[in-house]
Design brief:
Layout (H helix, E strand, L loop, with lengths): L1 H22 L4 H15 L5 H13 L4 H40 L9 H25 L3 H16 L5 H17 L16 H24 L3 H14 L5 H12 L7 H12 L8 H42 L1 H30 L3 H15 L5 H17 L1
Helix pairs in contact: 1-4, 2-4, 2-5, 3-4, 3-13, 4-12, 5-13, 5-14, 5-15, 6-7, 6-13, 7-13, 8-9, 8-12, 9-10, 9-12, 11-12, 14-15
Organism: Rossellomorea vietnamensis
Protein name: Chromate transporter
Length: 394
Amino acid sequence: MKSAMNIKTLLEILFISTRLGFTSFGGPVAHLGYFHEEYVRRRKWMDEKSYADLVALCQFLPGPASSQVGMGIGIMRAGVLGGMVSFLGFTLPSVVALVLFALFLEGVGVTDAGWIHGLKIVAVAVVGHAILGMAQKLTPDLKRKAIALFALVVILMWQTAISQVAVILLSALIGFLLYKHHASDQEARVKIPISRRLAVICLLIFFGLLILLPIIREATTLEWVALFDSFYRSGALVFGGGHVVLPLLEREFVPTGWLTEEQFLAGYGAAQAVPGPLFTFAAYIGAVINGWKGGMLATVAIFLPAFLLITGALPFWDSLRQNPKIKGALMGVNAAVVGILIAAFYHPIWTSSILAPVDFALAAILFSMLVFWKLPPWMVVMAGALGGLVIRMM
């Protein structure tokens, strides 16, 4: 009976994450909005505070934050297998699409299509809705509104790879000082169905591969080892999401002659046109180098650090967030996350999507469909793509 329930849960995770993988356009911040709408608002798999805490944890960790949030939700729901299934469902659609781009559509100007512009406008509606909901829960008083404003201003004015981590750390200190004596209602604990022993093993594997792969690469002449090492280090050492990993990948593969600058830029354009995490750009690079097998190797290598880190951190994270001494710091961090999301909502989402009054009109329609008419996100995505085509023909 229990086995049947586990299979049913895994299939449910696979179905939902795959649907999100096909419809989640707009980049990592938009993905967090889609996750919030599906897992928190509609299915109530976790409460607002737990979701915000998970997002805050993934902002701390290197790697693709939105993908780690998806993995974390899967792990909380059904253990390590749940995390793997959630990752596969959310990532595989864009991996397959980018491998096909690499094999068949390289150099096609897909980024100029009207439907893609419509999908960018969908991201405006989705992220705006998510931010409103999170702000109501996480910044209820003036102090936390001030922390969110501080984070917003700093992120917009100081756009570097370390600014986000610095803002979160400083906000944690401010929250600790302001709320260390704050009395709050008892929060629901999130059950993490994996042991701390397994978590420690995952962390050891993460650091072990980071140290050993370059050594093995120098000791052998195997191309697949070199590829795995390059993608693994790119996934393990990047903070700030998919756009930050692009220069790392370019430095790893263009000067070495594995692909040309033109091939790299063509793949970047294709990556903007597909849903799911931008880290799947690695699948394109791998496919250019060694066909579909190279695409699969690249995907595993670049996402493996993220999976090991979130699996290693979660069992300790829930205990920490329940500690009274840590709660105040997390209140500050969660307020900062709201500010960071608003900053990302403005740039790059708003600045790259709302280019004319008609774009704002479409965004208002999509926002109303999501918030007031409560239509499912996939319908909003379809309406946005159709609206983008209509705008382009006007």
